Amino acid sequence: MRGSLFLMLLLVSNYLFSQEKTITGKILDAATKEPLEMVIVKDSANSIITLSDKDGSFVFKNAKSKIFLVTLIGYEPFTLRINSGENKYTVFLKKGVVNLKDIVITNQRNILSTNKTLSLLDLDAHPAKTAQDMLRLVPGLFVAQHQGGGKAEGLALRGFDADHGTDVNVSVDGVPVNLPAHAHGQGYADLHFLIPELVSGYDWGKGPYFASKGDFTTAGFVNYTTKDFLDQNMVKIEGGLFNTARIVGAFNLLNNKAKDKKQSFYVSGEAVYTDGGPFTQVPENFKRYNLFVKYITPLGNKNTLTVTASTLWSKWLSSGEIPERAVEKGYVDGRWGAFDSTQSGYTTRTNFIAKLKTDIANHLTWNNQIYYSNYSLNLYTNFTANYFFPVDGDEFRQFENRNLFGYHSTLSKTSYIGNTSFNTDAGIGFRTDIISPLGLDHTKDGDFLENIQLGNAKETNAFAFADENIRTGNWLFDFGLRYDYFNFYYQNLATDTIATNIFGGLNPHAHAGTLSPKINIVYTFNPVFQLYLKTGKGFHSNDVRVVIAQQGKEILPSAYGVDFGFNWKPAPRLYINTVLWYLFLQSEFTYGSDLIDQPGGPMEASGRTVRYGIDIATRYQINDWLYAGINLNYAHPRSIDDPKGQDYLPLAPTFTSTGELNFRFKSGWNGGINYRYMHDRAGNEDYSLTCKGYFVTDLAVNYTKKKYEVGLTIENLFNVKWDEIQREYTSQFKGEPAAIDQMSYIPGVPFFPKLRFAVFF
């Protein structure tokens, strides 16, 4: 009798559990207690998968099994066992080794997550050490630095020479890095206030397909997220050739018990110095100091407050670009020389962020964020020797002081109807840039001669967006709509200059709005193959000075794009992403147009352009300790309004590639070798000038233990001769009978070893 009763209870129990039920939970990092996004939760009974969101939360509808497998790249797998009377769980994952076998291709929660796999793999494979390294983590994004980290990097992506950020949207913790109407160039994005060791993750995307991304998102975007919690304190010291030194530290200000209360308070600082390579005539004497503070605390059961503050101070000298003939003719003493020894720069940026996250109800979150930045720049450059001013020379000072205010509010909701999930994001916000003064001076040996441009500028961008992701079966549909409104103001203060002739009598106000729809579709055939189609309209804004000078013409030129691609795992340890793409721009920034960085500056729109190409990204784990990756990027960029043969886009990349081979042993040895290749490209519109390509290889070897790390990095391992920056300039030296139009350059770094020692406690 007892045996029959036990059997009956067991059968009833199994029957009840076999009925469809909902399992919910939260997945956290075991060390830091931070929520983990994109964690795969798989039902062992039928291999159905769900993913955790940004808060680490997951919902599993129609659960069939008592056993679920929880996996995330870079963490140890966890087996979740379900109890019959419980349906809410908290899972803590421990850090582990990367294993490509853990990757399962699945419908993501939103279209922004489709690149998350590559982000997780690449950040784990080679943690970044500089702002340049952070940017290079985006497949196909090339950077060029020519003043030791003083100026913002030059960016190139998807057939764009994006100068310092005209077509690539860059942000940190949701705060925009790009600066419109910048003294040195529209969209200038100086990322050097970010301490690389504090980055916990990054999102990126190519093309204008993302409703939450606005201005400058034509070639793509990248957003970095700083750590909410430090898993340990750290001090790191680096040193190398050219009197290079760096020290960085990060320290928890609360004890470990605070983590259990979901509190965090830490401070980090960085100091950098270098002579800047073999610039013997004008050593860079580059100095940079960073300070970063972050505080997180719950406010009751529903709210979490995050306050972040950071400040950057940087100063340097520069040899500047030199014309190709300068060394041969003796105007400059070798490739590392300078014809104007007073070129230099000074910049600061201080940021303040306050974010309030509110869990209003189940699967409904409200994020409110305000931010403020104060920014300044003084930059002395001479690109053209004595071309514009034969007597005093063409040295210019570009300068500005800026106050940037912003706010954005986003509601995020997840809901279910049967087996279909709906992820909704809706947001509003604004940013206001007040730039006073904003100017360009003619100088000699660093001394003021005259104003060329001088004014006050104000630009406000208000926006609203809505994004709906519908996940049903093998399909994911993403529908987005964004509206942006811009108000421009420029007050000309220069008198008796070219600028007076340009702005005299013009209305100093202008405004415009633009609507940007997006439609993206993903179809996942199975856990190893997925197709996707992305379509959308984006834009980039024009410099406020160009807007006023043109009286509202081409204020917000549109960009229209299409991506068709796939994610594929043909083998357990092989991952391939391939995409064909097309992009049309109504009007764009090309080098030498619209930038107003020379006397007067061209004021005409640069015209319509078209680009198409293919991107291939492959990651392969050869064995448990050896990992390989390669990115291949081809683009065909052309101007539409110019005749064939005159339609090249200056400096636009056509073929680029990066690759790496990384190792990691259980004994603590790790590192790798990587290359970056840039093919030759057009230096001007008819390709009569060539921007020369390069192939550069870097090496890193580390010995990492729980309490310390020793490392060696070598930039340009084979000491190849290459040029990092190349630009077309018409220049003229004293004594030359006529000006000459040719490429100018700054040499790329030679063989450059650095040692590193870090302690963790």
% residues in beta strands: over 45%
Question: What composes the largest sheet?
Answer: 22 strands, antiparallel, barrel
CATH C-level category of the largest domain:
Mainly Beta
Q: Quick one: CATH superfamily of the largest domain?
A: TonB-dependent receptor, beta-barrel domain
* Tally of distinct domains: 2
CATH topology of the largest domain: Maltoporin, Chain A
Task: Give a description of the structure.
With 761 residues, the chain is mainly beta. Helix content is 6%, strand content 54%. It has 6 helices and 43 strands. 44% of the residues are buried.
Key words describing this protein structure:
761 residues, mainly beta, Immunoglobulin-like, Maltoporin, Chain A, 22-stranded antiparallel β-barrel, 4-stranded antiparallel sheet
Question: How are the SSEs placed, and which strands pair?
Answer:
Blueprint (H helix, E strand, L loop, with lengths): L1 H17 L2 E9 L10 E4 L5 E3 L5 E7 L3 E5 L6 E4 L6 E6 L22 H10 L5 H6 L5 E3 L9 E4 L2 E2 L6 E5 L2 E2 L1 E2 L8 E2 L9 E8 L13 E7 L7 E7 L3 E9 L4 H4 L3 E11 L11 E14 L3 E15 L4 E2 L20 E18 L2 E18 L14 E22 L2 E25 L2 E26 L2 E18 L5 H6 L5 E18 L2 E11 L4 H6 L8 E14 L2 E12 L23 E13 L4 E14 L15 E10 L4 E10 L2 E2 L7 E2 L2 E11 L3 E8 L7 E9 L8 E8 L4 E9 L1
Parallel strand pairs: 1-7, 11-16
Antiparallel strand pairs: 1-4, 2-3, 2-5, 5-6, 8-9, 9-10, 11-12, 13-14, 15-16, 17-18, 17-43, 18-19, 19-20, 20-21, 21-23, 22-42, 23-24, 24-25, 25-26, 26-27, 27-28, 28-29, 29-30, 30-31, 31-32, 32-33, 33-34, 34-35, 35-36, 36-39, 37-38, 39-40, 40-43, 41-42
